[in-house]
């Protein structure tokens, strides 16, 4: 698929995208490793959670596309995940409190959503499913992590999270449909999703929920 | 794979199958959206549950077959899922009580089981695994929905459900082995599974469970 | 991929590997069927658990590799799974107490880890991901079984389990990199992992967990 003559140009263009992807993997791997560490698990389980959270979303995207999971042919992804797990293991848990990780997760979420939509379009997926695949790339690693840990996943909380991924994916779809080059298109879409997720973190923006969307209805929906 | 000259004939034959498939997607999407709505979730989560339940079974079938998930190249499936989620969101929950949905779910279950077996055979799968894939196509969307929602899945209840999908898949396998054209073969198999599931709904037919299958054993199995 | 002239040699070489694989499937299927039987489930659910546990790890390996799941084109695997489920169903549960099954599970775990790594390498996967795929082949069937049954999975217990699979996979990677023929390479790697898992069973070897790895910290980690 690659013309040899364009190799240098491709390298220039593709490197920032790869860095974006590895950073997203690292951030998700850290969040997975931390969940396992907080549950008082062993190093092996910490590595497992780092792996599942780091590559879960991208793997689902790839297997739905009917192609081999990207991290299998990329020696960096596994190394980054292992390093993330060891970092969590050998540092005290209190280093990782506070919102630092939530912000990093927001960056990973929006980077993966943009990259996922772009890859889906490359594989000839229709527009709406391409947006869905982008959202899944961003959110699914965290969902698997929470289900395995027996925690209520972000999916079940009213906080704005999936919506930020959806905004990124829709913008990525729109930007890639224009003449914009790939990298700025993805960066603009990611930045918008990151800003929305950041706003949700700062001001605790929540979506209305089904039971409470009707006026005059009180009490928790059963 | 398609000869241009047979296009019209193919269209005549394929359209009812596609309608069968879209109806199944809609029914499962509705059931997923309702579970999320009853849990008091947001619109985004309602859409997510509609998606996972609507395409979960078919996606598992396709990824096991090593092919791209069908809904990625079909613009209708995503639209049907979105519409189902919005329908649940903008209508009061009491509209959806009663057994209407259970009957619709029975229709979706048997339609997907027949279609799943047929697709597996097209991909050269051996007979027993083809039946297994048909059953998975029918049941897995609902199982993922229940696991994500933290509910005991239909799988763990003694009520006849998977069995109805198995009946449909076995009959589809047998009917496709004869000279019967594809559509009537699938419709006959679906109708039989639907009738069995319907009978289970009307008369609460249950399978014997392991602890209770031996005579003289009382009390709930632990 | 196969030269006709080498058919006889291939048969001689491949048969023990296939037997290794079918034995692993049978053992995992038995463990899955038993979990469902102990939960007092129906025969259909017992079959479902046998299937998911028996082919879960190998299926994940295959779909990540972007290829069709092996058991779909192999008529033996489904038959072995069905037989395992029926065996559990028609025998009293007390036959299956004790550590026999744990030892069989250890054999399945190490066989699958070695076979998974070998298959990943055949598909051109990088070394570290190939080890990860081997570990996943060995462990994931049991994890899905436990998540579906609502039980804490082996993954969350400090007992040495995933580590044994990792030892097997790393040794398989090393042995296949030498000039050793495929079968003895896989058998040596499997034997080492089996021995480690066996030692963990006999002497209850546990890995240190995150909360307790620091000296002077008492009480359960929260």
Automatic annotation (TrEMBL), chains A, B, C:
Keyword Nucleotidyltransferase included in the entry's annotation: no
Membrane-spanning ranges: 12-36, 43-60, 72-91, 127-148, 160-177, 183-205
UniProt keywords, alphabetically: Cell membrane, Membrane, Transmembrane, Transmembrane helix
Major localisation: membrane
Start and end residues of each Glycine transporter domain: 19-91, 103-174
One Pfam family linked to the record: Gly_transporter
Localisation: Cell membrane
Keyword Nuclease carried by entry: no
Family per similarity comment: Belongs to the UPF0126 family.
Protein's recorded name: Glycine transporter domain-containing protein
Species classification: Bacteria, Pseudomonadati, Pseudomonadota, Alphaproteobacteria, Sphingomonadales
